[in-house]
């Protein structure tokens, strides 16, 4: 049985690896559509199954053809990129979105990620950048497809659904690891806070006052004679330094590669994107004036808590 499962897994993974992603391009600039199509075709990255010059003209075709990935321009007549994505999602479209834009600002980036955009391609279009992003997208898609196929196969042969219970701590540490701060002293405090919130019987998306959270964690300390006020202050400082380190790491990634997946995912969600952008400029200019940057602990913990709840609700 073990040999069969191993061979079956390898077979399914091979089939998934051989899968060519199907792309649909939506852009009001014909030259951009042609360039993207050529990059995909000549680079053997997949198949372009359709294109449209606006979101409104592409809706019906996308819903009917079910492409794996939609490459969509941000600025378009009638329906812009984000409005088109919203409509498609309401209609049940499950494919991935990659946004193309010449204009990039913090509000647009944040809204796009909230709507489910996976990556950004900057205009003017660069062949190397497009190839890199599409290859990363294909790797994520194929891995997900392979795991799903293996799971379905195991279910069919009577082994049922295999699930590994992931703890709150593992979930939080995984996210902190992506930001490069798993070794920071405050990471343990952050884990303790999220565990405390997840263990509450009356879960709400909104955090209680930070002071209450610090005190709750301080009272759970090993020493019964701990000075709650002093320990609460220490917890706050450790968390502040950890979040500062996360901003430093993400800004460094963004300064080197604006399309880095960790930077793209975490920077606009967990932080004020303008603060991250300012930090990137500081790094590029070789300055080191971290004291000028604001740290929003509440926003960081709020987003982390909501994301942890979502992961558990889907597990």
UniProtKB/TrEMBL annotation:
Lineage: Bacteria, Bacillati, Bacillota, Bacilli, Bacillales
Pfam entry (one): YcbB
Response regulatory domain residues: 22-138
Any single GO BP term: phosphorelay signal transduction system
Keywords in alphabetical order: Phosphoprotein
InterPro entries xref list: CheY-like_superfamily, Sig_transdc_resp-reg_receiver, ST_Response_Regulator, YcbB
Modified sites of kind 4-aspartylphosphate: 73
Keyword Phosphoprotein: yes
Family matches, as Gene3D superfamilies: 3.40.50.2300
Phosphoprotein listed as a keyword: yes
Protein name: Sensory transduction protein
């Amino acid at each position: 049985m073990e040999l069969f499962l191993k061979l079956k897994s390898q077979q399914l993974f091979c089939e998934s690896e051989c899968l060519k992603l199907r792309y649909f391009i939506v852009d009001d600039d014909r030259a951009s559509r042609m360039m993207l199509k050529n990059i995909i075709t000549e680079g053997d990255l997949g198949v372009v199954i359709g294109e449209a010059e606006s979101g409104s003209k592409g809706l019906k075709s996308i819903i009917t053809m079910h492409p794996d990935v939609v490459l969509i321009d941000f600025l378009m007549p009638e329906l812009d990129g984000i409005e088109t994505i919203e409509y498609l999602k309401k209609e049940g479209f499950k494919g991935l979105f990659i946004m193309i834009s010449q204009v990039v600002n913090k509000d647009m980036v944040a809204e796009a990620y909230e709507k489910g955009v996976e990556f950004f391609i900057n205009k003017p279009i660069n062949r190397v950048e497009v190839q890199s992003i599409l290859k990363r997208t294909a790797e994520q898609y194929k891995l997900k497809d392979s795991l799903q196929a293996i799971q379905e196969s195991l279910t069919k042969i009577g082994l049922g659904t295999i699930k590994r219970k992931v703890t709150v701590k593992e979930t939080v540490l995984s996210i902190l690891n992506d930001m490069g701060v798993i070794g920071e002293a405050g990471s343990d405090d952050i884990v303790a806070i999220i565990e405390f919130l997840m263990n509450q019987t009356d879960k709400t998306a909104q955090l209680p006052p930070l002071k209450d959270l610090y005190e709750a964690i301080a009272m759970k300390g090993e020493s019964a004679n701990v000075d709650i006020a002093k320990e609460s202050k220490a917890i706050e400082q450790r968390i502040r330094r950890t979040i500062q380190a996360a901003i430093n790491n993400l800004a460094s990634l963004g300064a080197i590669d604006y399309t880095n997946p960790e930077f793209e995912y975490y920077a606009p969600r967990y932080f004020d994107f303008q603060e991250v952008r300012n930090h990137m400029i500081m790094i590029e200019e070789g300055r080191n004036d971290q004291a000028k940057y604001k740290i929003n602990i509440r926003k960081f913990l709020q987003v982390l808590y909501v994301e942890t709840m979502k992961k558990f609700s889907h597990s």
